[in-house]
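#onboarding

Welcome to the new folks! Below is a worked example of what a typical request in this channel looks like: someone posts a single protein sequence, and someone else replies with the predicted structure as tokens. Don't worry about understanding the tokens yet, we'll cover that in week two.

Example request:
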Amino acid sequence: MRREQSGRRRRGRRVLLSILVIIVVLIIGTIWGYHHATAPINKAKSQSISMAEKYAGLEKETAFYWTNLNKTYYTVAGTNKQNKSVYVLVPQKGAQLRVLQQSAGLTRNQVLSKVWSQRNPKKVLSAALSVFNGQSAWIVSYMNKKGQLCYETLSFKSGKLLQLIENI
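Example response:
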């Protein structure tokens, strides 16, 4: 009788240990997968911030945006050495950095307010500063009330509509 009970305890411990090992492996696998999936954008962010600090005098980073139209741009928002709020647009390849004074155009919140008031989307997916046809522009992607994907491109300086793609 005692042998049967100790055998059951051992099997119970083995089952419990097996379940714990599986849980630990799943947790480690999830963490590794997340890290592996986010590594490229984290690398691009750190490189963009370094370039903005080195070439545009960025002192403090407050936001990071990523857009991909015809070219990929990374935008770093922050303050420079003169304590002025700036946006630094960093192209993924090729061209030079663009440094924009935040006061020279619309802010992200102003652009979002404009899109919400004019389009009344179901959900805004992203709003990022980029370059469109050679000029600085805000790219806003959102889901309309019908659940269809839409893109709105607005001029950074004036807020004028440059492009509208609806119902994708």
